[in-house]
Amino acid sequence: MKQTVRDFFKQFPDDDACLAHLFAVRYGQDHVCPKCETSKGWYRLTNVKAFSCQSCGHHIHPMAGTIYEGSSTPLQLWFYAMFLFTKSRNGVSGRELQRQLGVTYKTAWRIGHKIREHMARVDGDDPLGGAGKTVQVDETFIGGYEKGAYGGKGKAIVLGMMENGGDVMTRVIPDRKEFTMFPHIAANVAIGTEIHTDEHGGYSSLGDEPAYTHKTVNHRKDEYVGTSGQTTNSIEGFFMHLKRTIKGTHIWVSKKHLHKYTGEAEFIYNRRNAPETILTDLLYGYPKG
Ligand SMILES: [Zn+2]
């Protein structure tokens, strides 16, 4: 079910409701107190954003260990910022957050980045592929406004791995050498997978690798689908959307922060068949207490 702004404010009418939600998701009334080892229940303290053990008075701070830790921004604004992220297909810029939340640009920028980090963590990194499955692997250049840069120089490189009909995973990499790319593939693509790439030299030893079946598509010959159906069209489509988002919404992102934007794009893409779960996943995907 699509969540409207009205639904959102009904569920989270104020900061207390947000903190209670966070406590319930991470700990809950049954949580065994780490100090007295009983579970007599917990009550909200009045002047602190914390809950206290009924039995011994031990405090739990639900925001600790989450992206909200140490933030003076009201929790409801954080939750609302997440709501805004889930409403937009092309991401939310710092300026847009600033406008919608009524905070400074610096705060808005920080909230945006923290939410992207949260998305990447909630999304996780389960291995792709496996026996009978296919993973497309490709890399792309993003940005490149370094002074005097030409060709790929100064640009950031993103390696993408996408299971056909499944999830996508990205890594920001310093170069396209096999030495750089192969460890990411080995760590994230399960044994027995059929891997499709273009004929870039960085992938050439995949063919000698007994763990995988490697098929290539020859882009220089304008080939987009090979004779045995091999293609990298899906991962290229993901890259196109990623670039459009960065250019259209954020104009430019630095190499240093690029992995957060790719993490956001992954999180959203991996929920493409169930967009209604996006907000729930974010609001329930906290580390357990
Ligand atoms: Zn206790």
How many beta-strand runs? 8
- Largest sheet, spatial ordering of strands: 6-5-4-7-8
Global geometry = elongated
Kindly estimate the percentage of residues that lie in beta strands according to DSSP. Answer: 5-15%
Question: What's the architecture of the domain at 134-253, going by CATH?
Answer: 2-Layer Sandwich
What's the main sheet like? 5 strands, mixed
Overall CATH class of the domain at 134-253:
Alpha Beta
| Rounded mean pLDDT score | 91
pLDDT < 50 stretches: none
Estimated helix fraction: 25-40%
Distance between the termini: 29 Å
* Helix and strand run: HHEEEHHHEEEHEEHHH
Describe the secondary-structure layout.
Layout: H1 5-11, H2 15-26, E1 42-44, E2 51-53, E3 59-60, H3 75-87, H4 94-101, H5 105-123, E4 134-142, E5 156-163, E6 168-173, H6 178-188, E7 194-198, E8 213-217, H7 233-250, H8 255-269, H9 277-284
Parallel strand pairs: 4-7, 7-8
Antiparallel strand pairs: 1-2, 2-3, 4-5, 5-6
Zinc ion is lined by residues 33, 35-36, 53, 55-56, 58.
